[in-house]
Amino acid sequence: MVEQILSGAAIISHLIWILVTLWGGYYLLTGLMSWKRPLDYGQHPAYTRFAVLIAARNEELVIGPLINSLLQQDYPPEMYDIWVIPNNCTDNTALAARNFGANVMECTIPVKSKGEVLRFAYQYLKDRKYDAYCVFDADNLVHSRFLAEMNNAYMAGAKVAQGYRDSKNPYDTSVSGCYSIYYWMMDRFHNGGKAGLGLSAMINGTGFMISSQTLQQLGGWHTQTISEDLEITAQCVLAGEKIHWVPKAVTYDEQPLDYAQSVKQRRRWTSGTLQVARSYLGTIGGALAERRTLSLADLGATLLIPAYQVAALVNLIAASLTACLDCYKLSQVPAAFLSAAVLNLALTALGSTLAACLVLTVEGKWNKRMVKSVALYWLFLLSWLPITLGSFVKKTTVWEEIRHTRNIAPQALCRDKVLSQ
After folding, report:
1. Structure confidence by residue, pLDDT tens digits, 218-241
2. Which pTM value belongs to this model?
3. Which end of the chain is more exposed for a tag (fewer CB within 10 A), N or C?
4. Which of helix, strand or coil describes residue 130?
5. Domain 1-421 class in CATH
6. Could you tell me which of 164, 190, 166, 180 has the C-alpha nearest to residue 305?
């Protein structure tokens, strides 16, 4: 009986290994393509009229620096309006936004997610002749060239675009450092690599632009899940609208400081991915049957990431059981299983650490204060497995607040940024 179980585990391990290798090979290709020079959108006169949207829930402490960074844009002030949309607030977010010079759009309907707030804002503003909307989180800071670079992209033909998501507080804690590494990897190897292959980037929740024309084609802003960014990505790709990568348009995002906040946020992300996958994978499959494009296949692969994580865990267990086939006695099985599992985990940890070192090198982010985060990055990724498994069992369906407190002046981050991506 034991031998049959171990033989079955060997077969499962080999099948999953093939799938994981194919998956990993594809993402290795996209990572290599990130070294391809990004598309040059050129320099264009300020033409695009932007509505800047900021959904804000209890962000009184951080909304001011964001508004200041937007007011300091290297872009004609008459060509953009800043709209803060307070929702479910119990503090003075609206008053703070007005005092710093933003327009305040009071959300007059009950909302449970950021997507519902953006839908409300779009309905309020759709007749005001804006060419495009730029979306930010209230805890962000925005580089002074952001709107100018998005204007360049828009004038070059981009109707949807994602900017570079940098970190506002990479050195605060090891958790915020791990998050920073994760986003730098997303910037470089995911969005940069997809751009190198001529595919769509992925909208990352903040620091992105979408044209009024595209929203009209999509029937307005009508996301239904708690991952409105991934859902709008799916809607754009299905509609044949490429999401352009604009690495010179930089946003600085505040990262969670502790593990409890991290679990809450990543559980929401994973649950949202599962929601989007359930809603769109069938449509993607049907679209692939009609038009076999790499963009659709790539979107499907992205939505399957939680399933890939579970498969990786199953493969770890199956591979460790396979190592027990050489045991002559049943008493040897536990030690053989444990040794194989530790070896596989060690190799995974080594690969993750080397990847973290690589991204810090190519993105010019090396700093001695990042050493602890680099050393713990593999554990940060590994901790995603129980979060994913828990999300399969019980999904988060309501957006939960994460308080932001890092009040940093725009000049502290933006003045020395060299836009050489």
Report:
1. 999 999 999 999 999 999 999 999
2. 0.88
3. N
4. coil
5. alpha beta
6. 190
